[in-house]
Structure formats: structure tokens, C-alpha cells
Amino acid sequence: MSNGLGTVYDDVWLVDGIRTGFADYTSVLSAISPTDLGIKVAREALSKSTIEPEAIDMVVAGNMAQSSFDAYFLPRHIGLYAGVPIPVPALLVHRLCGTGFETIIQAADAITLGKASKVLCVGTESMSRNPVASYTSRNGFKMGQVEFKDFLWEATKDTASSTGMGDTAENLAKKYNILREEVDEFAAQSFAKALAGMEFRAGEIVPVINETFTREGYNDRSIKLPKGVDSFAVDEHVRPTPIEVLRKLKPAFKGVQTGGNSSAVVDGAAAAVVVGGKTVKERGLTPLARVVAADIVGVPPEIMGIGPAPAIANVVRRAGLKLSDIDRFEINEAFGAQYLAVEKELGLDRSKVNVHGGAIALGHPLGVTGVRLCITVARELRRAGLKRGIASACIGGGQGVAILIEV
Fold first, then answer.
1. For residue range 60-71, what is the model confidence (pLDDT) as tens digits?
2. Set 97, 119, 223, 272: catalytic member
3. What are the tens digits of pLDDT across the range 173-205?
4. Which of 194, 394, 401, 402 is catalytic?
5. 82 and 17 belong to one structural domain
6. Do 274 and 355 share a domain, yes or no?
7. Whole-model pTM?
8. d(CA 378, CA 387)
């Protein structure tokens, strides 16, 4: 087992979860604060799980970029406007693309340590509202040295290894001899599965509507959709995308990756409720799944996309299982070549992976993806009558994360 940080849990349960549809970059959700998207899914997840807000004793929220001026308060505001009692603390977590996973890991750890029994986990992200920023203007401007940059673009460049995230996928393509044709074929499959899985995914999506969130004694918050839009409840990036279309796209990073075979840039939010076994018994709950184990591991930054391979291998061994014991995988498709490298390294059976489409088709809202993948794999296990699943992702800077669940 390679070095990693992992845990096996005895009695931790994912009760239920919900998410918004994922909206394309600068589209229908682009004006909405990630805090308000987080409040929306938090309230809905509590309602769906039948855990009343007053019973929650910990809030964990995940978010990557500060995309509103009150972003410092994001986890606290989500808890307050979801109706959680004022004495209940809130925590913001940030593990890049593993941020959503970290909300669930933090919840499971707190329950295991006896610090909490019922935890609200939220991942929320507005890629569209990432700022155009200046880090050098606090002391004024010098002639010819005014510097404003696109935070969303600049943040994808790892300054330790001098590699953009797309470059790390190209490095894996070279290392594993992955051709452009293979990547395009995989992307076409992702879109096709996503189109076929629309009815399945509808079960985990709550419509976003014009709505006001109130808390007595405090200012109202709200969601306001664009004029003429009354409701949003789809994964907007999903569309017919045959391989013939993908083949025509120009490389984005001087290799096999294009805008069509890389994860879509989207906005959205997801939430889940995680509890201990005592709560399950006392309330007679029927949870979605048990959280069995989790693992986080580091990998070289320049090939960060291989992260799911050692994380998955670790979590399987840690739980005393074999890879063949896993019935379904949800692995984030940050880049087509990145996923294919993981598939080759582990020898995965693709028919078990992302069976309703992945991030190339659905999108990858950074702080949300981990929550979404855990909800999706749990629901798929129940739909298919299977037992064990793993949700996993690579993490910018060189990490991998995996959570093992069973139903």
C-alpha cells in the first residue's frame, strides 16, 4: 500500500443527498452566489433525508474559489439559512477537486470520534463568478505594471511544476501511450451514456427556482434566475456529441486534449446528510449507503490525474477487499486521457465505471463533484441491486481521493 491517509469506518451512513442541475459556464446560474446555491441544496437534502435542521450538530461546506464578496461566511450562512441552530458550528473545507469528498470524510471522522452524530455536507461552486483579480494593487499602480488576470484560468496552473492541469493530462497520455482517437472515443461514450441516463439523474436533481431564504432577525437571501426562466433542473452541457464532431476540434493543450474531451466548466451545488448508526436505528432510517472507508494519497504534481489509481487501490486494500469486489465506480473525468490512464493502471472494466455519464458530459464544478459522485454511485448501486461502489477523483497539485461505500 502506497503512503496515504485513510480510515475504515464502522457505523457511518449516507442518509440521502440532492443536487442542482449543472449549468454551463456563464449560463443560467451564473449570477447566483454559491452560498445561495448551497442553501438551496442544504434545505432540500435535510427535507429529503427527514433529518430536521434542528437536529444537525455540524455543518461542513466545500467551495474552491471565492466567487462572492461574502465568501468568508459561506459555510456559516449555509447552515443558518438552512435552519440549523445558531450554536451549531460550520466549517469550510478545501482540497481542490477533492473538496466535495472532504466534506463527507470530515463528517465521517467527526462521527467516528464522537464529536457529532448528524452532519450536513454541502459542496457548492460558481465557476462563472470566479473573479478577474489583482494581487498587486493594494499599494497602488506603477506605470505599465497594472496587473489583472482571470483567476479561473490562472488558478489551473501549478506553479510548482510549471504545468497547467491540461498539461498533466498530456503527460499521462505520453506516459501511457494514449492516442487522440482513444480520448475522443471515450468522450463520445461519456456523452452517450449521459444522454441515456437523463431519467436516472433526474432523481438526484432538485429544480432551482426563484426563491427567498429567511432567518428571523437576519437579512433575507435569495435566488433570482434570469428573466424568462422559471426553473432549472437539467445538466445543461449534456447533448448529442458524436465522435465525428469531437474529431474536428483543435487541441487545447498541444496534444490529445480538446474542449470536447475535457470536463465541462459548470456551476452547481450538492448536499448530503451523514449520520451515525445510532441515529439510523433510533429514527428507523433507510439510508442510501454505508460509508465504509476513505483514502487520500499524494502523487507527482505533473501527473496529478493518476491520483485515483493509488487512492482506489489503497481504499480497497484498507477495507480488506479486492478490486474485483467493487461493483460500480464513479471516477471524475477531469480529462479524457487522465481517466484512461487510471483505467489502464488499475485494469478497470469500463462497463462498471460512470455508467450514466461523467464529467466530460456533465461538468466538474470543483467543490461539488465529490458530493455528487458519492450520491450518484450510491443511487446506482440501489438501482442495479449491487453491493459496493467507489467514488474517486484526481486533485490538482498531485493528490487522489477515494470513498468506498456499500448498500
1. 999 999 899 999
2. 97
3. 999 999 999 999 999 999 999 999 999 999 999
4. 394
5. yes
6. no
7. 0.96
8. 9
